[in-house]
Write a structure and sequence with these properties.
The protein has about 160 residues and is α/β, with parallel strands linked by helices. The termini are far apart. It has four helices and ten strands. The chain has one domain (about 5-160): L-asparaginase, N-terminal domain (Rossmann fold). It is about 25% helix and about 30% strand. The strands form three sheets. The protein has a six-stranded mixed sheet, sandwiched between helices. A two-stranded antiparallel ribbon has the order 2-3. Strands 9-10 form a two-stranded antiparallel ribbon.
Amino acid sequence: MKRLKIITTGGTIDKLYFDDASEYKIGQPVIGDLLKSFNVAFKFEVLSLMKKDSLHMTDDDRELIKKVIEKSDEDYFLITHGTDTMVDTAHYLSDIKDKTIVLTGALTPAKFQNTDAIFNIGCAIAAVQTLDQGAWVVMNGKVWNPKHVAKNRDENRFVKV
């Protein structure tokens, strides 16, 4: 992997909560600082494309992500994305040729002590380097073809469909 382009779109992974009574705010992407603190052995660029809860993602937003990927020189992409519509975005991106695209996120914000964000990011980075070209979802320690996965809200994880 020559260089990884990381596209951040918002979602729970970057949410900030100020107190129990307040609404959330999507903060600055955490992934760049995390990777720097882990002293990773690859080059990466973080592009903060939007700061949206994925429930507010539109096909126009997905088209913007697609255009950025298609116009980029990089071959490897990691997209941090809200979990509610992550699979929809993976489907939208699945026809992009000659690129490996992995979408991941978190079910709890990265700033929380017991977050799944760091685990999911680590899994996604390993996956993007080893998967075939196409769009993939990496959550809960598994790599998913977007045709065969859905978020199960009751179980608070991704499951096979």
